[in-house]
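Students often ask why we bother predicting the structure of a whole assembly rather than each chain alone. The short answer is interfaces. A chain on its own may look different once its partners are present, and contacts between molecules only exist in the joint model. In this exercise we take two input lines together and write out one structure for the complete complex. Read the inputs first and try to guess which parts will touch.
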Amino acid sequence: MLPTLNLTGDVILAEHLSHRFGKIGLGDVVLVRSPRDPKRMVTKRILGLEGDRLTFSADPLVGDSSVSVVIPKGHVWIQGDNLYASTDSRHFGPIPYSLIEGKALLRVWPPEYFGSLR
Amino acid sequence: MRTRVLSFLNQWRGTAKEAFENVSIVAKFLCLLHVTDRYIISSTHVQGPSMLPTLNLTGDVILAEHLSHRFGKIGLGDVVLVRSPRDPNRMVTKRVLGLEGDRLTFSADPLVGDSSVSVVIPKGHVWIQGDNLYASTDSRHFGPIPYSLIEGKALLRVWPPEYFGSLR
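Now the answer. The structure tokens for the assembled complex follow.
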């Protein structure tokens, strides 16, 4: 999630109310249970909601092959800000909305980066 | 005047204490009930044709436990309560017919022809299917679902009473 979140680790405050009321929107940084490993939580950004059509580069390092996808009902598209080092919906497809467990509010540590995530 | 107010309050002190104690017992009970219902065992009303003949069309009440899926103890053939991947506000009841790594071959449309589809279930996913193949929307339609969508495992049916017992 570089450059939004630091490589060496940040502490963020996340709230667990928005996803229960359906108030997760485009661009939100969310805490999500990994579809590949039920014991792991990952932090990604929402870049697509159900019904959206997304076009992305299958491999950002190699060529320009584009893939176009329509996000099915009840699913969202998550992507890390660091396209070159992120395993996200470009690899495992759109994830069911219910896997979202929290929305990041602000960063509290380290102190020099205190504040909202932009 | 002041002493009258004070003696009035003193009279009610004993009652207030008793009321508070009783309320706190009720509050503790409700907390215990909530924790049990959410994280240990709960009763659910399930209805629909997708699990015939195992579950009735008109609706059954089953006891479901919420511990197994946290410990990874969901196995093949278990009837599970799952959050629908198509509608986050809906719970569905299906049977687990495949675990991660399994290869499944199924008929794309059981009413039409013999077209077979073969699928390998990716890591962290399971394959759910209703017992009634002709009236069930399940993994044959929306693919394998992430394991984390499983919220409970059905234990036994408690209503209607003539069908009391385990689901087989």
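Check your guess against this: The mean pLDDT of chain B is 89.
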